[in-house]
Amino acid sequence: MKELKLKIQKLPHCFKLPQYQTQGAAAMDLYAANSEDITLKPLERTLIPTGIKIELPCGFEAQIRPRSGLAIKSGITLTNCVGTIDEDYRGEICVGIINVSDKAFIIQRGDRIAQMLISPVYKANLELVEELSQTQRQEGGFGSTGIK
Questions:
Q1: Domain range list for the chain
Q2: How do beta strands 60-65 and 83-85 pair?
Q3: Which SS3 state, helix, strand or coil, does residue 38 take?
Q4: Longest dimension (CA), the chain
């Protein structure tokens, strides 16, 4: 796995710096830095502070993703599915969370609430054309290939 230097600033209310949980983990866990417990009712959403700021190298982004265990076991996921932190953002990383279950969920200080993946970004140079190349699929989408 390739490595890169990521500058990080720890804010006074930070609980813990992001951590990779295993040697082979692609993303690091982000920790809730809320001062009090937050009870999220069904279908309620909130913004959770992490207590960190980062400085990404040029040509990279940070993707904020749900934790699969929270999503499948408790119905806790992200409001925007995958969040993007751009290389020029210098504010605190906060995580928009929604409770899609039928039970209230309590977020405590120090809970692992999301994952952060650092990924390279390519800038697209748009080329206006009259037609696109032909494929077998063409415009088929939204289940056009079936489920089996």
A1: 11-120
A2: antiparallel
A3: strand
A4: 57
- Find where tokens 């993303």 sit: 27
Give Cα 136 to chain centroid, integer Å. Answer: 33
Task: Locate all alpha helices (DSSP H) within 91-140, ordered by sequence.
Answer: none
Give the residue among 53, 63, 100, 59 at the shortest CA–CA distance from 83: 63
- Integer Cα distance of 25 and 52 in angstroms: 20
**pLDDT < 50 stretches in the chain:** none
What stretch of H or E contains 107? Answer: strand 105-107
Q: Cβ distance 129 to 77 under 8 Å?
A: no
Q: What is the pLDDT of residues 65-96, one digit of tens each?
A: 999 999 999 999 999 989 999 999 999 999 99
Query: For the chain, how big is the Rg over CA atoms in Å?
Result: 19
Those residues with Cβ within 8 angstroms of residue 42's Cβ, 6 or more apart along the chain or in another chain: 99, 100, 101, 102, 103, 104
CATH (residue range 11-120): 2.70.40.10
Kindly report the backbone phi and psi dihedral angles of residue 138, in degrees, each rounded to the nearest multiple of 5, phi listed first.
55, -120
Cα dihedral value 15, 28, 120, 140, nearest 10: -120
Distances (CA, A) of 27 to 54, 63, 140, 145: 15, 9, 33, 31
